[in-house]
Amino acid sequence: MSMLLCSLCHIWTIYLVTVYKGCRLYSSRPLDAYALDESEEWWVGHFEYLRERGYMMRPRYRPGWKPSYDPKDIDEGMFAEDGQIMFHSAIMDALRISDSLVVAMKRVSTGEDQIAALFSDDAHKSDSRNHCVRIIEALPVPGDDAEKILVMVWMREIMDPRFRTVGEAIQFLKEMVEGLQYMHQNNVAHRDCSKNNMAMEANAMYTRRYHPVCPKKRYDWSGRALHHSRTRCPPRYYFIDFGQSRMYDPSQPRGAEYALKSGGYTPPEGLADTPCDPFSTDVFFLGNLIRTSFLDGDDYMDEPGISGFEFLRPLVKDMVADDPLKRPTMDEVAPRFFDIIDKLPWWKLRARAVKKDEFLLARPFRAVYHVLWTASMMLLLKPAIPSPNLLH
User: Fold this and answer.
1) How far apart are CA 191 and CA 265, in angstroms?
2) Helices vs. strands in the chain: H and E counts, helices first
3) Per-residue pLDDT tens for 281-315?
4) 124 and 73 Cβ atoms separated by less than 8 Å
5) Pairing between strand 55-56 and 91-96?
6) C-alpha distance from residue 198 to each of 23, 163, 209, 242 (Å)
7) Which H or E run contains 14?
8) Residue 208 — φ and ψ, nearest 5°?
9) Average pLDDT for 201-226
10) How many Cα neighbours within 13 Å face the side chain of 305?
11) Which residues, listed in sequence order, are joined to residue 262 by a DSSP beta bridge?
12) What are 50-66's pLDDT values in tens digits?
């Protein structure tokens, strides 16, 4: 029993240290977890090709790399820059050599990029309502006609760093409402539009580049990645991952689809195994995002929710109705959402976004600091709902 307790304490200690450092823990990997695996070797094998095309991967993924740590020492690998392992075998980060922009490179099957390419063309990318991730370029894979490498700007999780104000969160929701409405108006259903398939382009927020695997640290591992607030340097939000998306012929009736599980949640029509309009399922997932991330909390992700968003409850209730036929369309959701937002007073938008599990004794001190910070943002003429520039 004592040995078991010691083991559990050791695992918990490693977890706490990892969270503190802002890194991901790969507890399912063996002790030599920080040596290259098969998927990483694939990227190393394409290093020269990608460099010729203008992209430089981190030292770990360069031919002849030797670790700066003992590969069998999980503690050394965890805290070394070249021990940071990409968390998805099909995705790799790199610097664009021409301007040092951090990009994501994703291996996809040929044809899987069609929807992302559609919303990245000149006709769509300049439209401010379009919140589909932009493809910088699609690279052929040498000797493999079945795959491509999509190059995109590297993005962050939408909740990291946290929302400081109600207005900052409203900007995120505004862009997602606009974006999904825009997709539907162009006859495309995302079908997997939960939080895990939304991302934030936040380069303007950071004084120096952040590390793709440990985003709380600088890219060069020289210290903590410092950032401005979303109010001061607004980010921009995007839908990503169109592997399950469908495009429909507007001249034909839209076919029913079986709903997918997304972000840990299955819509009622999926539980009933009943096909329905995929646009209605998209509405459910977007409503469920608001419900779980802001109103009620997310049991699946162990997140408590954020106070101050009850004004969205009636709209969300309609969006997540059990009967898909009773849900509003995105063309109905959008004007209702904007009408609600337009009626919010400025002080509500600038109010602090408080997590529901926040330590009570810390609230008075954080409230005072928030008042001072809010005054500084108002002196700088920063709007309560941040207004980002369009990313081309």
Assistant:
1) 12
2) 13, 9
3) 999 999 999 999 999 988 777 789 999 999 999 99
4) no
5) antiparallel
6) 20, 15, 21, 11
7) helix 2-21
8) -140, 155
9) 94
10) 16
11) 265
12) 999 999 999 999 999 99
> What confidence score (pLDDT) does residue 32 get?
56
AA identity, residue 245:
S
Neighbours of 50 (CB within 10 A): 20
Among residues 177, 190, 192, the alpha carbon closest in space to that of 333 is found at: 177
User: For the sheet containing 144-153, what is the strand order?
Assistant: 55-56, 91-96, 101-109, 144-153, 137-141
* Three-class SS state of 382: coil
Tell me 388's DSSP state.
Answer: P
Which amino acid belongs to residue 223? G
What CA–CA distances, in Å, run from 140 to 51, 136, 377?
14, 13, 46
Helices 278-290 and 166-185: angle between axes, nearest 10 degrees: 180
pTM of the model: 0.88
Across 186-214, average pLDDT:
95
Q: How far apart are CA 359 and CA 340, in angstroms?
A: 30
Q: How far is CA 188 from CA 3, 204, 205, 244, 266, in A?
A: 55, 30, 31, 11, 20
The confidence band for 192, taking pLDDT boundaries of 50, 70 and 90, is very high
The DSSP secondary structure of 320-376, one letter per residue, reads: T-SSGGGSPPHHHHHHHHHHHHHTS-HHHHTSB--BTT--GGGHHHHHHHHHHHHHH
Give the span between the Cα atoms of 339 and 333, in whole angstroms.
Answer: 10
Lowest mean pLDDT among 3-12, 133-142, 232-241: 3-12
- pLDDT for residue 71: 74
Instruction: Give the rounded distance of the alpha carbon of 149 from its chain centre.
Output: 20
Average pLDDT over residues 140-166: 94
Placement of tokens 């029913």 in the chain: 256
The CA distance from 233 to 382, in Å, is 9
The full set of domains in the chain, from first to last, is 39-154 (3.30.200), 166-379 (1.10.510.10)
- 215: preceding bond cis by omega (within 30 degrees): no
| Per-residue pLDDT at 390 | 54
Could you tell me which residues are beta bridge partners of residue 150?
106, 138
Q: Which residue has the tokens 């490498």?
A: 149
The closest of 193, 183, 45 to 127, measured between CA atoms, is: 183
